[in-house]
Amino acid sequence: MSMTLTERINSFFGTAGRTAKAAVTPGQDVLATPSYVVKRRAICQGCPKRDGYLCGECGCLIVAKTTLATARCPAAKW
């Protein structure tokens, strides 16, 4: 089942908040390592919930979401 609009908004702002916190915290990475990004995208590529370039679960742009170190898969696959 896909996330409701409210859940999608909460997911977006949760990721944005964690990313902002990482940006101002010494030693915290904002961007995932290149190898981690490749692994995340491979998982998304094979996900039945994928909708083209978007995550069919949360509606995020996969190329952007997989790049952020603090982002989480709404289906808990990564």
Relative helix content:
40-55%
Number of helices: 3
In whole angstroms, the N-to-C terminal distance is: 18 Å
Q: Report the strand count.
A: 2
Mean model confidence by pLDDT: 92
Structural class of the secondary structure composition? mainly alpha
Listing every helix as H and every strand as E from the N terminus to the C terminus, the arrangement reads: HHEEH
Low-confidence stretches: none
Strand order of the largest sheet: 1-2
Shape from CA axes? Answer: flat
How can the largest sheet be summarized? 2 strands, antiparallel
Percent of residues in beta strands: 5-15%
Radius of gyration: 12 Å
Topology summary:
Blueprint: H1 5-24, H2 34-45, E1 50-51, E2 54-55, H3 62-65
Antiparallel strand pairs: 1-2
Structural commentary:
This protein is mostly helical and 78 residues long. 46% of the residues lie in helices and 5% in strands. The chain has helices spanning 5-24, 34-45, 62-65, and strands at residues 50-51, 54-55. The protein has a two-stranded antiparallel sheet. The radius of gyration is 12 Å and the shape is flat. The model has no long low-confidence stretch (mean pLDDT 92).
